[in-house]
Write a structure and sequence with these properties.
With about 260 residues, the chain is an alpha/beta fold. The chain contains five helices and 13 strands. About 25% of the residues lie in helices and about 30% in strands. Strand 9, helix 3 and strand 10 form a beta-alpha-beta unit. The chain binds flavin-adenine dinucleotide.
Amino acid sequence: MQSATYNDAADVTTLEVAVNNAADAGPGQYAFLSFSGIGHPFSISHSDASRGILTFHIKAVGPYTRGIAKLAREGKLTLSLFIGPYGSLTVPLDNCSTIILVAGGIGITPLASILSFLADPSTKRHPLLRRVLLVWTMRGRGLLQVPKLTQQLADAQHQLGAACIQAEVQIFVTGRTKTEGREMTTEAPSALSSCEISGRPDFDSIFAAEKDAAIEKGGKNATLAAYICGPPPMMKASSVAASANNCVIHSEVFGF
Ligand SMILES: Cc1cc2nc3c(=O)[nH]c(=O)nc-3n(C[C@H](O)[C@H](O)[C@H](O)COP(=O)(O)OP(=O)(O)OC[C@H]3O[C@@H](n4cnc5c(N)ncnc54)[C@H](O)[C@@H]3O)c2cc1C
């Protein structure tokens, strides 16, 4: 293992793992990692094929992942097993004119890899792609304090823009704040140059607006795809809105 960093605000451990098959990792894939006992599945957030490094972000939610956090905090985390990568996208990224990524909390991890893949100038071009929207919902701002993650998203947004693909990141912080319901103009504590909004996303309005805009630009041939990962209620609400607005859907469930 290359490095392990525990982030207290997010309760997330960021791992960089050196593997000899990093180049095989595709967008949205995952691997089984074990530090003790049975391996658990974690999405590959980022793949750096040139350095042979895969990045993972692991949220402490139960006994096993809390154990990972404790060892990382103490500088004692050792990876005993890596198996992967596994998984494939049920909706191919090619042939889409608009791609909407919907993440809830730590569900950002597979979507971060999709976003970076789309933005990577060295990967295959996506000739029809005109717009990418990331809607990331979180309870508090903890995840915005994971620099490697926010920097990755900001870099991808910038690279897409440089390739003339409109890229927008919308971050919805759903925990109650004084500014609920209106845009917060104070600087976000992250690398993201995006609009941070307090409150829940209105998926019906978001998907309807994306469909209308895609049809206006691309006519009847506009193709929209949604990639969704997060807690079940958010996945359900966004999937219903996505399918009502002609989106094909790939969803990733973090059930174990
Ligand atoms: C494809 C995929 C990708 C994922 N990517 C990420 C990611 O990027 N980041 C992230 O933070 N999380 C991710 N997850 C979720 C992550 O795998 C779980 O949160 C984690 O394994 C559960 O941690 P825990 O500490 O609760 O585990 P445990 O302490 O092991 O407990 C988890 C629950 O599973 C039960 N359980 C334990 N062992 C088994 C077993 N062998 N079979 C069935 N049930 C068992 C336990 O009783 C408990 O209810 C992903 C999950 C999947 C399926």
